[in-house]
Design brief:
Helix content of chain A: 55-70%
CATH topology of the largest domain in chain A: Arc Repressor Mutant, subunit A
Strand content of chain A: under 5%
Distance between the termini of chain A: 53 Å
Structural class of chain B: mainly alpha
Distance between the termini of chain B: 116 Å
Structural class of chain A: mainly alpha
Number of strands of chain B: 4
Largest sheet of chain A: none
Helix content of chain B: 40-55%
Largest interface: A-B, 51 and 43 residues
Oligomer: heterodimer
Order of helices and strands of chain A: HHHHHHHHHHH
CATH architecture of the largest domain in chain A: Orthogonal Bundle
Order of helices and strands of chain B: HHHHHEEEHE
CATH superfamily of the largest domain in chain A: Winged helix-like DNA-binding domain superfamily/Winged helix DNA-binding domain
Strand order of the largest sheet of chain B: 1-3
CATH class of the largest domain in chain A: Mainly Alpha
Number of helices of chain A: 11
Radius of gyration of chain A: 20 Å
Chain lengths: ~220, ~180
């Protein structure tokens, strides 16, 4: 017989465990909700942030979304993934929040571009492979965050769900209420736009500064 | 199959996702071998996906989790914290009401006197038993000859007499008059 300790070492985010947790929460064990959402706290915050681009608003919306998920846990259907359902709630809450309180915020001009047209890269600088350790540097994370924030919302939210939260194309489409074809088009644009925004830095000036400062070479 | 730069750019995302068929993949790779620009675009796009895909890219604010749990706790039905909160609120309400009642009955409070001509007393021992009569305006020491309507007299504490607006009798309670 499998010792109990071994079972407890399994990661908590397994769908099987989730299903069981959800059932127990529905039956009144409300404290288990904290365990259910633990793996997704960061994800919910980042989804809210992708839309609102403001820490305080993103935190408020993340709280609202979690609260809503708890209150409506009975409406969750097992055929969907809990993470996708939670992300959908968060996206809806963030959009509502923005409509209600931040209706006047101007979206970047790229949002109004026709997403069907081809996107032509502007910069062909040779951007060599960047070691992930670079992310330890706050200034690098800052540059990446700024570039992301400058994208239009529809590109930003698609990119965040797919490339940062690692949802599948289908899950991203479901969470955003768009077709998988649109997800692919937006994703392509978002990736190419980000590359264009970051290439001058990573291909030239700040990458060499950063790497040389760190004592390593960029090649 | 031969593909142009534009076609490579259009498919770059799908290429990274592994979602292009074998013949297109071969054609793209053939193109990439001889095209510096497209190679730069592909490498850069791959870097974008790798860098942003790292969990270090998204920092949640300090204390986020704690605040989230507290907010949930406050809103969960029947949880200990909200029950305790309710108990504390109820106890506070009782205390406030109780202290209000004490204040109202205190000899130090200033109720409206039954007679506009009477003088309020001061320093009357609150537990001293005094005599009041039904429609009288003053309270008296036991045995005072100036008690009216002796058929409807009532013995109460000085505290209660003052609370009800009775004033000290100018004769038997002379020493407690303020003026």
């Amino acid at each position: 017989m499998m010792p109990e300790e071994v079972t407890s070492l399994e990661p908590p985010a397994k769908p099987f465990n989730e299903e069981m947790l959800i059932q127990r929460i529905r039956n009144g064990e409300h404290d288990l909700f904290y365990e259910l959402i633990r793996p997704y706290e960061r994800r919910v915050y980042s989804a809210a942030f992708a839309i609102l681009r403001n820490e305080a608003d993103a935190e408020d919306v993340a709280q609202e979304a979690m609260l809503k998920a708890f209150k409506h846990i009975r409406q969750f259907r097992a055929e969907a993934r809990f993470s996708t359902w939670l992300t959908q709630i968060t996206i809806n809450e963030a959009r509502m929040w923005r409509r209600k309180d931040h209706a006047n915020i101007m979206e970047p001009i790229v949002d109004r571009q026709d997403e069907e047209g081809n996107y032509t890269p502007r910069d062909f600088a040779d951007w060599r492979e960047i070691p992930l350790e670079t992310l330890e540097r706050k200034e690098v994370r800052q540059k990446l965050a700024e570039a992301l924030a400058s994208l239009g919302e529809k590109y930003r939210e698609t990119f965040v769900l797919r490339d940062m939260q690692h949802l599948s194309i289908e899950e991203t489409a479901k969470a955003l209420g768009i077709s998988t074809a649109s997800v692919k088009t937006r994703l392509l644009r978002a990736r190419l736009m980000l590359r264009d925004l970051l290439a001058p830095g990573f291909g030239g000036t700040w990458s060499s500064k950063l790497f040389l400062a760190k004592g390593t070479k960029p090649w | 199959m031969v593909v142009s730069c534009e076609e490579v750019w259009r498919e770059i995302s799908n290429y990274l996702e592994g979602e292009v068929d074998a013949s297109l993949r071969a054609a793209m790779e053939d193109h990439l071998r001889g095209c510096k620009h497209c190679t730069a675009v592909l490498d850069g796009t791959r870097n974008v996906v790798q860098l942003y895909g790292d969990e270090r890219m998204f920092e949640v604010p300090l204390g986020f989790s704690h605040r989230l749990h507290r907010r949930l706790e406050e809103n969960m039905p029947g949880n200990r914290r909200s029950f305790l909160g309710w108990m504390v609120a109820a106890a506070a309400a009782v205390l406030v009401a109780g202290s209000f009642e004490v204040a109202r009955s205190s000899v130090f409070s200033r109720p409206e006197l039954r007679s506009e001509h009477a003088q309020a007393g001061a320093g009357v021992p609150p537990d001293m038993l005094v005599i009041v009569s039904g429609d009288g305006k003053t309270f008296h020491a036991v045995g005072c000859p100036f008690i009216h309507d002796k058929a409807h007299i009532q013995t109460i504490t000085a505290r209660e007499a003052l609370r009800q607006g009775y004033a000290p009798c100018v004769r038997c309670m002379k020493k407690y008059l303020t003026a």
